[in-house]
Amino acid sequence: MQQPIYNPSIPFTGAIFGGMQEGKMVMIQGQVPQYAKRFQVDFQCGAGVSPRPDIALHFNPRFSDGELIVCNSLQNQRWGSEERKQGIPLSRGTYFELIFHLRPYCFQVSANGNHLLEYNHRLPFNRVDTLGISGDVTISTITFTSPGVPAFAPPPYTPMPAYMSPQVFSSPPVMASPTFAAPAFHKPMAANPSGRGATEWGRNPQCPGGGRRARGKKQQNLSVSNPVVPYVGYVGGLRPQQKIKIVGTFPARPNKFTVNLKMSSTSSIALHMDQRFNENALVRNSCINQTWGSEERDLPFLPFLPGQTFEMTISVHPTCYQITVNGRHLVNFNHRLQPLNHIDQLEVTGDLTLSLVQF
């Protein structure tokens, strides 16, 4: 059975092992960015570039062209007649789940657990051996299910706004050479086979002027397990009381590791934390419009040790970021870059292995 593909770089082109067979399903989980105009999923008959391979199903949601989905096929370099469906059940700034189910007469497509459309075969489906994804989209998981074989897939998935969820990127893979990691992208649950439960946040000192936790329904965190380093996640815009949890392990002789919270639109860094093991320093700073500010280095204790596992939490408060490590309050870093909801990207790089990133 083909293993899932996690965090592929877009554009992505990868082999479908064994090709498409009746009953086979391809499940794609990801996120549509706020700026999205369109993206496409192509079930291709080959992986060439020139000449372009035949495409059995071209699935093309268009957000800036009347909110519609266009389906078509490409044969001998010529497009057929378009099939258009008004309305897109995938919203900008939210996560989604698409399932492509191969039936004897059609591709059956569902979105977020609901039937979306059927596209009758125009080319023999047994010619399909490649999946292509491109455009304005980020993908967390691609799962392949053969007929009669249970899916190696994340737990049941409920789409929700992007600010409640991470989106993951990884270093660009060469054709059909993605990085695999398990378990999959999932929501924390009360209990699971790995023994991990829902995250419980410790009580830490509030930032000055930090205010009280907003009342009302508690927002549920989403997690990415065992992400690839360097890790880049799209968080959809920070908000007060949001918490970002990072769990990782350092090798015996690490050099450094870095965490950045950024505005993707300008590449400005709101919070830069740079652990430098050779200096026994955790440097905090901001870089706004390509200009670094003043460094902050004072620490009440050394939070990170070579060869050790750590758990770091960044809590967002109205006036500052509050950082705790292994349950101990470490430092506060006052906001230098506003508004918070424009800070939409998390980066983790350096000499470590990540076990969990949670928003």
UniProtKB/TrEMBL annotation:
Keyword Repeat annotated: yes
Keywords: Lectin, Repeat
Pfam families given in the database record: Gal-bind_lectin
Domain Galectin residue range list: 12-145, 230-359
InterPro entries on file: ConA-like_dom_sf (IPR013320), Galectin-like (IPR044156), Galectin_CRD (IPR001079)
PROSITE patterns, per database record: GALECTIN
TM stretches of this protein: none
A single cellular component GO annotation: cytoplasm
Stretch list, region Disordered: 193-220
Classification via CDD domains: GLECT (cd00070)
Leader sequence residues: none
GO MF annotations, alphabetized: carbohydrate binding
Protein name per its UniProtKB record: Galectin
The species this protein was found in: Callorhinchus milii
Phylogenetic classification of the source organism: Eukaryota, Metazoa, Chordata, Craniata, Vertebrata
